[in-house]
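Reminder: ligand-aware prediction takes two inputs, not one.
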Amino acid sequence: MTKLSPTTSPFTIQPAERMNGLPTQFFATLVRKANEQIAAGHDVINLGQGNPDRPTPPHIVASIQEAAANPLYHKYPPFSGFPFLKQAIAQRYKEDHNVDLDPETEVAILFGGKTGLIEIAQCLLNPGDVCLVPDPGYPDYWSGVALAGAEMAFMPLREENNFLPDYSQLNESDLNRAKLMFINYPNNPTGATAPASFYEETVEFAHKNGVVVASDFAYGAIGFDGQKPVSFLQTPGAKEVGIEFYTLSKTYNMAGWRVGFALGNREVIRLINLMQDHYYCSLFGGIQAAAATALTASQDCVTELRDVYESRRNALYTALASIGWHARPSQGSFFSWLPVPKGHSSQSLADLLLQEAKVVVAPGVGFGTHGEGYVRLGLLSSEERLAEAVQRIGKLNLFG
Ligand SMILES: Cc1ncc(COP(=O)(O)O)c(C=O)c1O
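Here is what comes back for the chain with pyridoxal-5'-phosphate:
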């Protein structure tokens, strides 16, 4: 056996290039700062994150408890998941949106929506290709594009355009190289929703420019003021040009369970399933059984949850108005997007609110450069805590 000489230089791990291209986790700093305040003994109200605060409905929990004892689920599940779960999501889309989906060819089961957002970029993009990404937008879109070694072109979401992208403003050279685009309504972070006409325009745009549409419908169950969010797949021709991502995380408070779906265009679904065949052997069967229960049982829990968020939203905006912080109420999702007062950046306001009011909000700049000038508040605390947060902020006299 050769003995290592004491002069041998230390073994170093060299990460692959793609690791260096990953975007920095902006919100990790936010979490650290909030934890410092909590560790110092302060009563911090955290409105900065997007983790549903309520438990999964009991009938879904009971379903996995029973399924856990079923030996069928102790074996490897089928590669692309159990057919009963694909049928359940297809049936839900039919009932909720009158969309027809073939469970075998137009549905892929995902480990949460996040996984699909990363996978689709790798399925479709080569280095040099462009992905159109909303700004502000959910940062996970950036991660998939980075892992694919592709580039991003940002589509500004402006308040004067109801936080919808204006396709006529996109630049020609980006459009020539664009192969994929993300859209997301009800929107994180702005709380905006999109009308059917926007999706019609999107299908036309996609056709004209040869761009695959990835509609992120994570908040598809949360629309306010009697407005049910529109699914991209309801649009004539949608399945020819794209897919939709859906997740159980928000609709049924199942964020920890990691269940999502990609739905729509057969070729894109085939590619996602193919990639997943190499990565995984589908989710634990017990989770798939409980997910099917969530989708096929009474949807009263979904209506109740939406009512809870709507009531919290109303309480929040009433409180905000009372301290002079005026904003357009969100139309869906569980986020509120509020303009920062004069003299502040989104980061300086977020820092001030944490230091002086012990309230965590997410600075808009973390969602992209067009997020500057806003902060995001989550409706993920009780009405009392939301009111208390606003009352503490009010004491700082920041609003005219
Ligand atoms: C806009 C948006 N898309 C997708 C997701 C991913 O959700 P999940 O991976 O839990 O399905 C989230 C979660 O916060 C989100 O806000």
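The mean pLDDT is 96. The chain has two domains: 17-55+301-394, 58-296. We will return to this case in the review session.
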